[in-house]
Amino acid sequence: MPHSASRRAIAFVNVAHLLDHYVLLIFPTAVIVMAHDLGLAYGHLIALSTGAFVAFGLFALPMGWLAERVGRRNLLAAFFFGCGGALIGLGLSTGSTALAVWLLILGAFSAIYHPIGASLLVTHATSLGRTLGWNGVFGNVGTAFASGGTAMAASAFGWRAAFLIPAVVCLTLGAAYLAFAPADSAADRRPSVPSSAADFRLPLPVLLTLFGAALVAGGMTFNITSISLPKAVDERLGFPLPIEAVGWLVTGVFLFGAMTQLAVGRLVDRFSLPVIFVGLAALQTTGLTLAAAFGGGAMLAGLALAVAGIYGQVVVNDAMVARYTPAHLRTKAYSVRYFLGFTVSGFAAALIGVAHGAGGFGLTFGVAAAFAATILCVALAFRFSLRRPEPADVPTG
């Protein structure tokens, strides 16, 4: 396939990653304004997004099977159009039931991206770590600007515009994708990143079980931190801020995490994955413990460290699937990876509502720190069961 077509495909996948995280995190910031406008409590409204985050993981599972029947290109197009339609529904909603239904639909269409996008990305990659690192940056830019962009739109035009403006962007990009993206048949002829085998002391079933546990725990730390950040900054920074300032402060924290993914991508091309895994897990545990114990600047610093570790681990998880899974099974493997990572963690919104009501964000981040400690234990098990490191990918382009 021509190199220009491959670059176009990667560009669309990267932009889709940005949108995927942006659209899912509009609601956690918009809810600050919506609570007053609709006369409903924060805990009640944030719990309405549970369906979206559960669907985000649950609907990832059949994507590998669907890709074999309708094609990855068609599924990614459905992602753009489905998210755009769901955002229009949210922007026109007037009550809790409508919000919950459209959030569920948004989660279902958002679930398309990760298994399909990751599979397409690896198919077109010439350097695994670098490509995954840049893709992670796009996703985190979406996460980062979801808070700032939503706050700006809600402040200037009302909370409904915060949903309707990105809806137009999604629909426009969907049309552009269908016009310019290469067909699946061309992509499948391109040699993908080769798989390799590491020599572990632990048997494969044990390693898969441990990795599954880390994916579930990682999904919880990801969602708890991402969903909680806007309200935690608003509540625990120590002095009042307008919603625009809250949004952009949260954006800064997420951008810090995005830049970390570039560094992690470079490390993936040079060092053993289990070694990187340990460092990132330790960063998450330390940062979330700080955020649980302190408010103000210490909380913000802890959350910045945690976000760096959380988003860096996303790159490592995707690299482990790409490196240790045969090419013909990768789409299905990514479906399972994101099903495990996001289905259980979809209940994070409900957990935040309960934990926040019982003990504020100190308890909320304490729970997240416990999940991070689980990841650290798994990472250490991988590291110390490794007999010899697998060969790192050599950048070729």
Automatic annotation (TrEMBL):
Pfam families: MFS_1
InterPro entries: MFS, MFS_dom, MFS_trans_sf, MFS_Transporters, Sugar_transporter_CS
Membrane topology term: Multi-pass membrane protein
Keywords: Cell membrane, Membrane, Transmembrane, Transmembrane helix, Transport
Domain Major facilitator superfamily (MFS) profile: 9-387
Gene3D superfamilies: MFS general substrate transporter like domains
Cellular localization per UniProt: Cell membrane
Record carries keyword Secreted: no
Membrane-spanning parts: 12-35, 41-63, 75-93, 99-122, 134-157, 163-181, 202-225, 245-264, 271-292, 298-316, 336-355, 361-382
PANTHER family tied to this protein: MULTIDRUG RESISTANCE PROTEIN MDTH, RESISTANCE PROTEIN MDTM, PUTATIVE-RELATED-RELATED
UniProt protein name: MFS transporter
Organism, scientific name: Methylopila musalis
